[in-house]
Amino acid sequence: MIDYELLGMVCGLLTVLGFGVFLILMPILNFKLRKNRRGMVKGIIDSAPQKLRDRLNLLMENGTSWLVFSGAGYLWFTYFTLRYGWRIPKSEIVDWRKEIKIIFGKDYGIYRIFLLAFNFGGLGFVGFCIYNYLTK
After folding, report:
1. What is the structure's pLDDT at 72?
2. DSSP element (H, E) containing 34
3. N or C, which end of the chain has less CB nearby within 10 Å?
4. In terms of Cα–Cα distance, which of 63, 60, 87, 62 is closest to 72?
5. Phi, psi of 72 (to 5 degrees)
6. pLDDT at residue 84 in the model
């Protein structure tokens, strides 16, 4: 039998920790990468799959968090949308990820932690929503 109380606590903790780390790292990365932002955004857009370039350009240049949108190929829910909704081949997404790794250079490690925190926060949030649905 599933212990729903434990499930709710784990999902809640995962959400708080994931989004907490994400919110701490976002201003740090924005501050650290502010001087190279324009060049990095242009490189990320130019290396993106062709089907995605126009929309990615709009999202990243529109003043929203360019760090989140630059990680679209790394975010779990977005990855599945790109692969199956937009029918972008896996090889193009993998090539895009390799280019992003080169673009971020020595800051790639903290960037990956930032995106993993977002992924785990989102996973915890979905789990917490399911927990609330199951226990009502």
Report:
1. 87
2. none
3. N
4. 60
5. -55, -35
6. 93
State pLDDT tens for residues 11-24. Answer: 999 999 999 999 99
Work out the pLDDT band at 64, boundaries 50, 70, 90. low
Closest to 116 measured CA to CA, from 28, 25, 27: 25
Spell 7-39 as b/e; 16+ CB within 10 A means b: bbeebeebbeebbebbeebbeebeeebeeeeee
What CA–CA distance (Å, rounded) separates 31 from 25?
10
Q: In the predicted model, is pLDDT for residue 117 greater than 80?
A: yes
Q: Provide the pLDDT for residue 99.
A: 96
* Closest alpha carbon to 43 in 130, 91, 105, 85: 105
Token readout for 47 is 């290396």
* Those residues with Cβ within 8 angstroms of residue 24's Cβ, 6 or more apart along the chain or in another chain: none
**Rounded to whole angstroms, how far apart are CA atoms 9 and 1?**
16
